[in-house]
Design a protein that fits this description.
By secondary structure, this protein is α/β, with parallel strands linked by helices. It has 19 helices and twelve strands. The protein has helices spanning 4-12, 19-29, 32-36, 40-43, 51-61, 66-76, 90-93, 110-113, 130-145, 158-168, 190-199, 216-227, 241-251, 269-276, 286-293, 308-311, 317-325, 333-340, 344-356, and strands at residues 80-81, 102-106, 119-123, 149-152, 173-176, 200-204, 230-233, 255-258, 280-281, 331-332, 360-363, 367-370. It has a nine-stranded mixed beta sheet, sandwiched between helices. Strand 8, helix 14 (269-276) and strand 9 form a beta-alpha-beta unit. Helix 1 packs across helix 6 (66-76) and helix 10 crosses helix 11. The longest helix is centred in the middle third of the chain and has 16 residues, at 130-145.
Length: 371
């Protein structure tokens, strides 16, 4: 029997099929194996599958053999996850557009993948000031020493400083690349890359030997945001990839923090813009920041006889709306969106929080039910 992961790979080989359409296929058919064997008429019922896309599917699908393709791909790319794998990062899977394939090299910590160890993204300009470097080092060090994993993009500047500081503090770090996991970019970070392989992880949605391309880096920013519980923007001008990451974070229901700077400092203009739009200030008291980042609701152990209403923690209005939409029977993700009228990113973030609180359970096929 061909594994579901093989169908995730096979669908990515058809031109015009990206993460968005794959997500819709999964939600519509339950599995991509079922979708692979669907008729042209059945595929036409999925939003986004117009005439041209359907023709490409019919023409290209007949030439692909998922099991053979998967075996060959494993030989060329020894380590990768698909959303069908239990080890696929949970937080990333909860986003509206998770990568169909996520390649990796280095040291995997399953607690990170399962969402049990908090990960925080740190991003910013490639040309930081001494002020930005100093605070990036201090915050990355504090996070690492307090059990957080630091996620960034291994670019020059803020990214580099955050990775190095986290590892020096004995912490784990994840670098999200815009190349294949075996391609070092920028080349001057070759020593940093080697260090991360021994004290962290490098991940990418691009297969081995993929060279850098300017279109890859904005796309990889969604992975940084998706992996992270929160995003910290240290220094960023108005036209910065860090702001793209912050935008994704907002869409995914993640918290965004920004380091304030002077009004006339060019590297601080993007941070000031984020703060004006509601981002949380990164202030001098790092204990307060650590407290906010670690403030994930928990349910203490209780006796079996405790009434249900006493077990329920006080939920925010957004979480309560999603909770009210979920029944004892499993409901698909898209149905919950319809019931709540909320954005997909907000629903995804709320579902993750409710699951971490033990109030709901996720079933195969992106279905959810009350625990």
């Amino acid at each position: 029997m061909v594994e579901e992961g093989a169908y995730w790979l096979a669908w990515t080989q058809i031109s015009g099929i990206g993460p968005v359409l794959l997500r819709r296929l999964q939600q519509h058919f339950g599995t991509l194996a079922t979708a692979w064997n669907a008729t042209k008429v059945q595929l036409g019922e999925v939003e986004g599958f117009g005439f041209q896309t359907l023709e490409k599917v019919v023409q290209q699908r007949s030439r692909l053999h998922p099991e053979q393709l998967f075996t060959k791909h494993q030989q060329e790319n020894s380590h990768f996850w698909t959303p069908a794998d239990a080890d696929y990062p949970r937080l990333l899977l909860e986003t509206p557009i998770p990568p169909p394939i996520l390649y990796y090299r280095g040291e995997v910590e399953l607690q990170e993948n399962l969402g049990q160890k908090p990960m925080v993204g740190i991003v910013g300009t490639r040309q930081p000031s001494e002020y930005g470097i100093r605070w990036t080092r201090q915050i990355s060090t504090a996070l690492a020493k307090n059990g957080f994993t630091v996620v960034s993009g291994m670019a020059e500047g803020i990214d580099t400083e955050s990775h190095i500081a986290a590892m020096k503090a004995g912490g784990h770090t994840i670098a999200v690349l815009g190349t294949g996991v075996d391609v070092i970019y920028p080349h001057k970070n070759r020593d940093l890359y080697k260090q991360i392989l021994t004290a962290g992880l490098v991940v990418s949605e691009y297969p081995t030997k993929t060279p850098p391309d300017r279109t890859h880096f904005p796309r990889r920013n969604r992975i940084i945001a998706g992996l992270s519980r929160a995003i910290l923007v240290m220094e960023a001008p108005l036209k910065s990839g860090a702001l793209i990451t912050a935008t994704y974070a907002n869409e995914f229901g993640r918290d965004v923090y920004a380091l304030p700077g002077r009004l006339d400092d060019h590297p601080s203009q993007g941070c000031l813009k984020l703060l004006s739009q509601g981002a949380t200030f990164i202030l001098k008291e790092l204990d307060e920041l650590l407290t906010m980042l670690g403030a994930i609701p928990q349910i203490d152990g209780v006796e079996a006889s405790t009434p249900l209403e006493q077990l329920m923690p006080t939920l925010s209005p957004e979480l309560q709306t999603v909770m009210d939409a979920i029944a004892s029977d499993a409901l698909p993700f898209d149905f919950i969106i319809q019931q709540t009228g909320m954005a997909a990113g907000s629903v995804s973030g709320a579902l993750l929080q409710l699951e971490l609180m033990g109030l709901i359970s996720q079933l195969p096929g992106m279905r959810y039910q009350k625990s």
